[in-house]
Specification:
Blueprint: H1 2-24, H2 34-67, H3 88-109, H4 115-136, H5 138-150
Helix pairs in contact: 1-2, 1-4, 3-4
Length: 155
């Protein structure tokens, strides 16, 4: 169970790295030197894609680890992307995802050209959507169920 918890937080860290990379795009134009800006652009892209690849690897490891956990219930947990409002944390991120999606759609339809607002709202939507998938997913629910049964000290 400790491994599952560790890999869960590693995957969340990868999501934070991806979101930070998305958010930092808007600040690349502040760099005056084109060579440095080019290097930073590649570094931001590498951070984003390495974050996604690492997240997928951690999720695959988590899935393997969670299959080893005995499940005493008959219910099957669907994947997080198609699960809504399953945990308290999931409910919070579901609501935030909806709010940020509405904001992104409003920005598109209102043709707002503020780069800061566009990239910030897209980054916030990306982060809240990823976290809602994590917090509504079967691995998180198994972790939470185990915590409730065994107590925090065993995780």
């Amino acid at each position: 169970m400790k491994k599952l918890n560790l890999f869960f937080w590693c995957a969340v860290s990868c999501v934070l790295a991806e979101t930070s990379a998305l958010f930092s795009i808007q600040f690349l134009n502040l760099v005056k030197n084109e060579n440095i800006r080019g290097i930073l652009s590649y570094a931001v892209a590498a951070c984003f894609w390495l974050g996604i690849i690492s997240e997928i690897i951690f999720l695959c490891i988590m899935n393997g680890q969670s299959k080893k956990i005995p499940d005493n219930t008959d219910r099957k947990f669907p994947i997080g992307i198609i699960s809504f409002f399953k945990t308290t944390e999931g409910k919070i991120f579901d609501i935030l995802s909806i709010i940020f999606l509405i904001l992104v759609v409003m920005i598109i339809f209102m043709k707002i050209s503020s780069r800061l607002l566009i990239i910030s709202s897209l980054s916030a939507f990306f982060l809240s959507f990823q976290l809602r998938c994590f917090c509504n997913g079967r691995n998180y629910r198994k972790l939470k169920e185990y915590r409730n049964k065994k107590g925090e000290e065993n995780i």
